[in-house]
């Protein structure tokens, strides 16, 4: 509960929202879907800036990629034909795993999830392999690669306005492999993305959740495949390197040892799924 909440503003433009945030900094917060804020024990916040009227609930396909407004709901990402078409629909799949309740997904937003998710976030994992960029406006406007955004602490009073998913080559495939139950967050999840060029792997991206602080790319495992065909032995070698690199956390429901143990097979499955998708497409 925001026990000292006194008012909610509903600005109609980004400059208006930024002026409110700047004027009352310290005692004011952005509200998107409100599903996290509703449970917040914060007693410093006195006002909220509801950003639903800023026109940020869009999914736009352009030559440079897909632009996703900050207030697009997780459920719209699950259902969007545009988002489902990109890189084997890994982003739609990840949005569906952010919350098992469709009622909450109908309200919670991409921006809210990006600001609040943690080390087990399947959404972060998907955005890492898709090499998303996050656009923020504040005193100035800038775009951050997702890995830098995730390593940064807070938005410095700025407003997250957009996520850009860069355009993909037709020969790019991706996969997301979680392990868990229907009713909980994935205990661990590996993601992989590969572009095929003349039979060999280019621009390989491998990421995994359950690392300290945030999901991480496993760069040395990517290097194992770069420029090589996606054969069984090469997949095994990359999965083994990923397993060696992975430094998991112990968190509720799964120990560090468990996550370490399953990492090899999660990465292997993600790469095998990439291979199977490529066989369908190439
Ligand atoms: C019943 C219930 C179950 C839940 N279950 C889960 C769960 O299983 N897993 C899970 O991870 N979460 C869960 N949550 C928490 C919540 O749904 C998520 O954190 C959600 O994605 C937050 O999105 P939102 O749009 O509602 O954010 P809000 O609650 O509106 O905002 C969350 C935070 O992000 C900031 N923020 C939001 N948008 C922006 C922006 N564009 N720019 C700058 N700052 C911004 C806000 O200031 C606030 O600090 C649950 C919540 C409820 C009520």
CATH class group of the largest domain: Alpha Beta
How many structural domains can be distinguished in the coordinates? 3
Adjacency order of strands in the biggest sheet: 4-5-8-6-7
Characterize the main sheet.
5 strands, antiparallel
The geometry reads as: globular
Q: How many E strands?
A: 12
Mean pLDDT: 92
Q: If you consult CATH, what is the topology of the largest domain?
A: Enolase-like, domain 1
Under the CATH scheme, which architecture of the largest domain would be assigned?
2-Layer Sandwich
Low-confidence stretches: none
Over the alpha carbons, how many angstroms does the gyration radius reach? 19 Å
Sum this structure up briefly.
With 282 residues, the chain is an alpha+beta fold. It is built from eleven helices and twelve strands. α10 (232-245) packs antiparallel against α11.
Pick out its properties:
single chain; 282 residues; alpha+beta; Uridine Diphospho-n-acetylenolpyruvylglucosamine Reductase, domain 3; Enolase-like, domain 1; five-stranded antiparallel β-sheet; four-stranded antiparallel β-sheet; 11 helices; 12 strands; 24% strand; binds flavin-adenine dinucleotide
